[in-house]
Amino acid sequence: MVVIPFELEDELAKQLLAVACARGVTVQQFLSSRVPQILVTSDMTLIQAMSLAQHAVVKLEPWTNFEVSDLFPAADWDQMPIGLRKALGRKFREWADEDNRLLRFVRRSADNHSHYVRLHP
């Protein structure tokens, strides 16, 4: 394990401590659980995002309706660059349109989001 000493603004330190306490973990445990997610989200490639989305589809209950954004935690989706989200949406639609037995494209909503349904295996 590497020890990295750093300084935090008082207000940020208070918020960090409050969040960790609310979750019943230490600050170190909280940071250890969040930092990998932050790194993955900020440096994620299209291939990595597509792989995460495909794995999430497999875990859905049959006949579940969803959008691609539903396959990711909201905070992670919001941190993804808009270009990556759009590219992922196009790639996901291509995957759905292939001979795909896991899901089917259903419709586009008024806000231009694609909706899918998880098929029964």
Please give a structural write-up:
It contains five helices and three strands, in the order αααβααββ. The protein has 121 residues and is mainly alpha-helical. It has two domains: 10-39; 44-118, Arc Repressor Mutant, subunit A (Orthogonal Bundle), CATH 1.10.10. It is elongated. Helix 3 crosses helix 5 (82-97). The protein has a three-stranded antiparallel beta sheet with strand order 1-3-2, covered by helices on one side.
What would a concise description of this structure say?
The protein has 121 residues and is mostly helical.
What does the largest sheet look like? 3 strands, antiparallel
CATH class membership of the largest domain = Mainly Alpha
What CATH calls the topology of the largest domain is Arc Repressor Mutant, subunit A
Q: What is the count of β-strands?
A: 3
Order of helices and strands: HHHEHHEE
The appropriate CATH architecture of the largest domain is: Orthogonal Bundle
Rounded radius of gyration (Å): 18 Å
Structure annotation, total helices: 5
Low-confidence stretches: none
Q: Order of strands across the biggest sheet?
A: 1-3-2
Note the gap between the termini.
43 Å
Features:
single chain, 121 residues, mainly alpha, Arc Repressor Mutant, subunit A, 2 domains, three-stranded antiparallel β-sheet, 5 helices, 3 strands, 54% helix, elongated
